[in-house]
Structures are given as structure tokens and as C-alpha cells.
Amino acid sequence: MDVCKIHENASKCSTSTMECFMVLSTQAQKISIATLCGLFGTLCVFENSLVLYLIFSSPGTRRKPSYLFISSLALADILASIIFVCSFVNFHVFNETNFSKEIYLLQLGGVNTSFSASLSSLLLTALDRYISISRPSEYKVLMTWKRAWVALGVLWVACATVASLPLLGWNCCTLNSTCSELFPFVDDNYLSSWISLITVLLGCIVYAYAHVLWKAHQHAAYMEKHQKQNARMRMDVMLAKTLVMVLAVLVLCWSPVLVLMIYSIFGRLSNHLRKVFAFCSTLCLLNSMVNPIIYALRSKELYSSLRMLFARFRRQLKASEESPEGDSTHKSSVIETVCEDTRVT
């Protein structure tokens, strides 16, 4: 695609320019992307929908701020998977270009909003756990249900506003500025700002969880030193394992995409690197798929609700399997009774 001069003002804003960003050249690459998106997207929607149901079906969990943040995370991941998979597959697999610049930027804004809201919800979850372990006596005063809703409202409005800026005019067509090599019509300065925002979010999440991990390690070391083995120590060890998993998944899923974005601003991407970026983008979807397993289903309350849900489902399934036999037995007994009455008369 070197023939595409995406930095030239004469052609950078035409819809035909989008063909220069369709970097998947073989059928195998397109099938691979479609398979990854379909698999991750389907599992992501199912898992996060299940998490939302488990949280809001229980009065005890839906009133807790920590579960409100997890609900926001699940909702953001559902939106991210739906919008990302539809737009990404439509663009890279089916090579659809029959839409305007505004429609493309609207789709990109939806993807940015959902992924930014997902990371921001992770940040609120991290801050919630940071406060609970650093200031446990003041936690209920600081983290109220009302404040949690206000924080979520600010979060979603801010993410939607930042993601809408290219559609509202901060794009290389309106400003006649340098376009991104990774996204059509996107201004390089806007991409730099968005990368900075995401990097700050990730940095805050890592700092908060590193602090929680350090506190958990301190407490575990203290309990071991005084030879006290109790439930709290086991909980600290489990928390430490969960946080290590959180940080590992977060860094592994987001680092490749951010590194390539940063490189695209300061250097020229080869066609091969742009293909790598397309495949690495699915890692963000993988992160949304793994989030409910790490954050929600490792919770004792939600895991207990999930077991109760499966037990109820099994009972209903068993009852539905037994009911036809009961009906047929009842019908046969009625027929036998009628036959006997007929013979008697």
C-alpha cells in the first residue's frame, strides 16, 4: 500500500483513502481476524451480560459501590465488543467503504468511548480497592453509593466527549494537518493526546494495584512472622495473586497497541507493522473478555450467585425432562380407566 500517500492534502480526506488502511491482503489473514473477533466478541458479550445479571439480580451487590464499578466495566466491555467487532470486521474483512467520513469517525468514537470507559472503570475499581486497604476505617464514608454514581456519570461523559472530538472537528481534514498512518481522517495530535490519556489511566491503575499488592505483601509477611495463619492471611495471598493477574493481563493486552501507536507518530510504519497492529488490536478485545473472569467471577458473592443460578437452571431442566413422562403416565392411566369403564358397560 505504499502507493497510498495518506499525508498528501489532495487525497487524505476522500473516502477512497480508506482503502489504504485495509492492510489485510490475504484470505487467511481476513479469516483469522474474523475468527478472533467472532470468538472474543461472543464470549465477551456473554460473560459480561452474565456479570450484569448477577450483580443487578441481587440487592446486596447492586447497592455496593465496588459492584457498581464492575457493572460499568461490564457494560463498557459489552459495548466495546459489539462496536469494535462490527466496525473492525466490516472494514478489514469485508472492505466496506460505502460510508462517509462522518460515519467512520462516529464508529471510531464509539470504539474509543467504550474502551476508554472500560479502562476508566478499571481505574475506579483500582481506586476503590486502594481506599479500602489504605483507609479501611473511612472507606464507607469516602466511598458512598451516591458518590459512586456521580463518579460513573463523570467518567462516561468525559470518555464520550474526548472520543467525539474528531467528529466535532479535531480531524486532519478540517484542520488540514498531518493524518495518522493507522486511522483514516484522524489528526496525529489528537492521537498523541488520546495515547497520553490512556497511558495516564494505565499508569494510575498500575500504581493503585501496586500499592494494594504491597500492602497485602506487608500484611502477609507480618502474619507469617508472628506465626498466625488465619482467613485474613489467605485472603491477602489470594488478593495478591488476583492483582498480579490483573496487571499482567492489562500490560500484555494494551502494550503492543500503544507502542505501535506511539511509533506511528514519530516514524513511518511499514505495511507489515500495520498488519501487526490490526492483529494486536484484537488483544484489547481479549482484555474485555478476560475482565469479568478476573474482576467479577473471582468474587465470592458473585461466584455464589452464579452457583445458585446454575443450580436453579439444573432443577428447571430436570423438571422439564420429567414432566413429559408424568404427562404420558397420567394420559395412559386415563385411557386405561376409560377402557375398563367401557368393558363394564
TrEMBL record:
Question: Cellular component per GO?
Answer: neuron projection; plasma membrane
Specify one Pfam family.
Answer: 7tm_1
Its primary localisation, in coarse terms, equals: membrane
Which intervals hold domain G-protein coupled receptors family 1 profile? 47-295
Which residues belong to the signal peptide in this entry? none
Q: Where in the cell is it found?
A: Cell membrane; Cell projection, Neuron projection
The entry lists its GO molecular-function terms as: cannabinoid receptor activity
- What is the membrane topology here? Multi-pass membrane protein
PROSITE patterns given in the database record: G_PROTEIN_RECEP_F1_1 (PS00237), G_PROTEIN_RECEP_F1_2 (PS50262)
Q: Keywords in UniProt for this one?
A: Cell membrane, Cell projection, G-protein coupled receptor, Glycoprotein, Membrane, Receptor, Transducer, Transmembrane, Transmembrane helix
Q: Where are the transmembrane segments?
A: 31-55, 67-91, 103-127, 148-170, 190-210, 242-264, 276-297
Q: Which InterPro entries match?
A: Cnbnoid_rcpt (IPR002230), GPCR_Rhodpsn (IPR000276), GPCR_Rhodpsn_7TM (IPR017452)
Domain of life, per UniProt, equals: Eukaryota
Its family?
Answer: Belongs to the G-protein coupled receptor 1 family.
Q: What is this protein called?
A: Cannabinoid receptor 2
